[in-house]
TrEMBL record:
Membrane-crossing residue ranges in chain numbering: 153-170, 182-208, 229-248, 304-327, 347-372, 378-397, 404-429
Signal peptide, first to last residue: 1-22
Location of this chain's protein in the cell: Endoplasmic reticulum membrane
Phosphoprotein found in the keyword field: no
UniProt gene name: Pigz
Matching InterPro entries: GPI_mannosylTrfase
Organism: Spizella passerina
Transmembrane keyword on record: yes
UniProt keywords, alphabetically: Endoplasmic reticulum, Glycosyltransferase, GPI-anchor biosynthesis, Membrane, Signal, Transferase, Transmembrane, Transmembrane helix
GO process terms (BP): GPI anchor biosynthetic process
Protein name: Mannosyltransferase
Top-level enzyme category: transferase
GO molecular function terms noted in the UniProt entry: alpha-1,2-mannosyltransferase activity
């Protein structure tokens, strides 16, 4: 009882940390997709801000559904826009609210994971509070699940699916009749969010189907369950396709009806011709090895050997060890029973929950490993079966100190350091651009970003009608290209109200000194760690370590 009380208090503390760190906010910048797959697009559509629309939302074959961005970032931006229009909050729209409001919604949604673990733990023979502490203390939950990734939504939908299919475990004969419908909705929604969701859903759906078949119900009842699943999945898909078609083709029913008084059949034909099915476009793009190579190719074993360890540490390694032991055990049993009619002993029996949890973990991981482009965030949905497996009473956690140190390091690295100066830099520039001095005397700003992740323009809070701010993203440009651009801007630096800022990591600060220009102001934002331009260890050990772990905002000297 005492251990349970301590675990509950620890979970409550970690849950408060998750919410508080979101509001602080976290300065780490994990990947451009956390901005450019939802918040950046919605800021342009709803708040009419200058943004950069990614290729997934602009091409003739859009790869991302607009439904989830509208339901998440879109809703939060609509709320702060309404509050400002109603004069409830005079300056609701600023860089802080633009960053934090979508993240806060995702943080609230992240507690679906906690609910799922609490519901699932007793059903799978795990200690509920031990599993909750493992979940809440993981830096994956603290950092990744509070960010606006489609992978985050994928993980939440995977958790809901596991709850739905596992609810039948408690009493197979009296399963909820609506569960088949909900399972169909979640499966289709997950597929439209990210088609890779099918890799995560495969084992839960097979498990659910096996439970239905083993329930000894009538054939009519079995068919009814599967029909509900298929019909609800198809209806959900229809909703997504309709919403995406109207968004991406700008189809308006008023326009369709007003053109020659089109009949309903004409309207349906026109909609069918312009129909947008984003998952098929996603699969068509990603099944092309040449397209994947543009985003980076990795060895097929990267998820198993690198990404799993990077995200889950010792828990991933222990799961691999347990997987090999169980595989050896079942092969041995298979040889002994010689394929008796009962099949693989214990593999799908409720009393043996661990093997199934391992399948829930390793089968999606194996499917995702078939693709050459492998990023750590693709695996974050797997945290649920992993903590349930690791929290089994018979599997005492002997590595508590290592787990704590690993997650502290991960939270520090990805929550604070990784590209950690870019968001505070955009906050600083937004305040500068919207300062009273700039408002009374119009200024022109050129912001040149080099060797940083792609800056989300929406955080500058610039209206589309404003032309006084220009953002230039040089990405990882070489020294010659960077100097040519800087010198060109300097030579055209004639107006008295013009300001040119160069934003660059401290590790490549020396490059700018070779460009033959001078600066009148230097602002150092600390900390900022660029893994693309990492600091050198000898330099870090010198007195220049703060500069190496910082991001510079350099204002070009007009009088030079």
């Amino acid at each position: 009882a005492g251990a349970a009380m301590v675990a509950r208090a620890l979970w409550a503390l970690l849950a408060a940390l998750r919410a508080g760190w979101c509001l602080l906010p976290q300065s780490g910048y994990l990947h451009p997709d956390e901005f450019f797959q939802a918040p950046e697009v919605m800021a342009g559509d709803i708040l009419n801000l200058q943004v950069y629309y990614p290729w997934e939302f602009l091409s003739n074959s859009p790869c991302r559904t607009v439904v989830f961005p509208l339901m998440t970032s879109g809703v939060t931006y609509w709320v702060i826009k309404s509050l400002q229009q109603l004069d409830i909050c005079s300056s609701c729209i600023n860089s802080y609210t633009l960053l934090v409001s979508p993240r806060l919604l995702f943080t609230i949604f992240s507690f679906i994971l906690d609910y799922s673990v609490y519901r699932l733990a007793p059903l799978w023979g795990a200690d509920p509070w031990k599993a909750l502490v493992l979940l809440a203390g993981s830096y994956v939950t603290l950092v990744f699940y509070t960010r606006t990734f489609t992978n985050t939504l994928e993980g939440l939908l995977f958790a809901l699916l596991m709850v739905l299919v596992s609810s039948r475990k408690s009493n197979v004969g009296s399963a909820e009749p609506t569960s088949s419908s909900f399972i169909g909705v979640v499966t289709a929604a997950g597929f439209f969010n990210r088609p890779t969701f099918l890799a995560f859903a495969l084992m839960p759906l097979l498990y659910w189907a096996s439970l239905i078949v083993d329930s000894q119900k009538s054939i009519k009842t079995l068919i009814n369950d599967f029909l509900k699943f298929i019909l609800c999945a198809c209806f959900t898909a229809f909703v997504f396709i309709t919403a995406d078609t109207f968004y991406f083709t700008s189809v308006s029913l008023d326009n369709l009806y007003s053109t020659n008084k089109s009949s309903l059949i004409d309207v349906i034909v026109q909609l069918h011709d312009k129909m947008v099915v984003t998952p098929f476009n996603f699969l068509s793009y990603n099944l092309n090895p040449h397209n994947l190579a543009l985003h980076g190719s990795h060895p097929r074993v990267t998820h198993f050997t690198v990404n799993g360890v990077m995200l889950f540490g010792i828990l991933h390694i222990l799961a691999i060890g347990a997987g090999f032991k169980m595989l050896k055990k079942y092969v041995h049993q298979l040889m002994l029973v010689r394929w008796r009619c009962r099949g693989l002993p214990g593999l799908l029996v409720h009393s043996e929950g661990s093997p199934i949890l391992l399948l829930f973990y390793f089968v999606p991981l194996a499917f995702l490993s078939l693709f050459s482009h492998q990023e750590p965030r693709f695996l974050i949905p797997l945290i649920l079966p992993l903590v349930l497996f690791s929290a089994s009473p018979s599997r005492a956690v002997r590595w508590k100190l290592l787990i704590v140190l690993f997650n502290l390091l991960g939270a520090l690295l990805f929550g604070c350091l990784h590209q950690g100066g870019l968001i505070p830099c955009l906050f600083h520039l937004e305040q500068l651009i919207h300062s009273p001095a700039s408002s009374s005397h119009p200024q022109h700003y050129t912001l040149l970003f080099a060797h940083t992740y792609m800056p989300p323009r929406s955080l500058l809070n610039i209206k589309k009608t404003d032309v006084h701010v220009q953002v230039i993203d040089m990405a990882g440009a070489g020294e010659e290209t960077l100097c040519q651009t800087v010198e060109q801007r300097a030579s055209n630096f004639t107006c008295s109200n013009c300001h040119i800022f160069i934003i660059i990591p401290g590790t490549v600060r020396a490059t700018i000194t070779k460009c033959g220009v001078s600066f009148k102001n230097e602002t150092l934002i600390f900390p900022h760690l660029s893994m693309e331009d990492p600091p050198q260890i000898p330099v870090l050990s010198s007195g220049n370590w703060r500069s190496q772990l910082g991001l510079y905002i350099l204002e070009l000297n007009r009088d030079h």
